[in-house]
Write a structure and sequence with these properties.
One of its GO terms (cellular component) is plasma membrane. With 254 residues, this protein is an alpha+beta fold. It has helices at 9-27, 44-64, 81-97, 115-136, 146-168, 203-206, 217-224, 239-252; strands at residues 176-182, 185-192, 195-201, 211-214, 234-237. The protein starts with 8 loop residues before the first helix and ends with a helix.
């Protein structure tokens, strides 16, 4: 299996095709100016525009081999938000179709510089924002398969918590570890002055952490992305460890 994903990369393309349609459907359920509570400051229309821009940024990372500096950030005059989104999506899929997931592609995560990184990243990006729009428009929340959610938890911890926080120059003020348990998988996240890391581990190793959080895969997936409050997971152990972990996750995924 290419890259760092926990499931087959073909699943990401399948999910991406489904999730983008669910996102568009949810965007039709309320006016574009409707606030999105799980994305403070965003409206339904802004989320659609954001995803259309993200697709363009991802494609440029792959085709230019570096972080893009310029892309079409807004719909062209007379272009609808949905058309702007679909245009970016179609171009992204075209780039994906031309390469195997294990082919080299530049990315912001040194541990996975493959096309598969972007397949995974775009599937989870779209899924999380689809949830945002379903929640904002009072549409029924669409669950995802447990193994897809577990992969999303792993991506948050390994790529966002362990990689993005150091890139932003952010770390904890006290050295603590928190175990994350979901769907039969276990991780440890460690943070403190000069250290921010996370790794997949055994249940025995996870038991050594200062604190722990446990939830079913869908709830944990949404919680790690800041879409659900602490009361939606079971937690135990060091209060300071849990509070620091939660705060750092919010900064990592902001």
């Amino acid at each position: 299996m290419a890259g760092q994903a926990l499931i087959d990369h073909g699943r990401f393309l399948d999910a991406l095709g489904i999730e983008v349609e669910l996102l568009i459907d949810a965007s039709h359920a309320a006016p574009a100016g409707t606030p999105v509570p799980s994305c403070p400051g965003f409206t339904v229309g802004e989320v659609v525009r954001h995803i259309g821009g993200v697709y363009r940024v991802a494609k440029l990372w792959m085709t230019e081999g570096r972080a893009p500096k310029d892309w079409q950030r807004y719909p062209a005059p007379g272009q609808s938000l949905e058309d702007y989104l679909r245009q970016g999506f179609d171009a992204l899929l075209g780039e994906f179709a031309a390469h195997e997931p294990d082919a080299y592609a530049a990315s912001w995560w040194p541990a996975d510089r493959t096309y598969g990184f972007w397949w995974r990243r775009m599937a989870h990006e779209t899924t999380v924002h689809r949830y945002d729009l379903e929640d904002a428009t009072a549409e029924p929340i669409t669950d995802v398969a447990d193994d897809f959610a577990v992969d999303g938890i792993d991506e948050v911890l390994s790529a966002w918590f362990a990689q993005r926080l150091p890139m932003l120059g952010l770390s904890g003020t006290i050295t603590r570890t928190v175990a994350v348990h979901s769907g039969g998988h276990h991780w440890i996240a460690r943070a403190g002055p000069g250290v921010t890391e996370a790794w997949h581990c055994s249940a025995e190793e996870a038991a050594t952490a200062d604190g722990s959080v446990t939830a079913d895969p869908m709830a944990m997936y949404l919680w790690t992305w800041g879409r659900l409050p602490l009361r939606n997971v079971n937690w135990s152990g060091d209060d300071d460890a849990i509070a620091q972990f939660w705060s750092l996750l919010r900064l990592a995924t902001k």
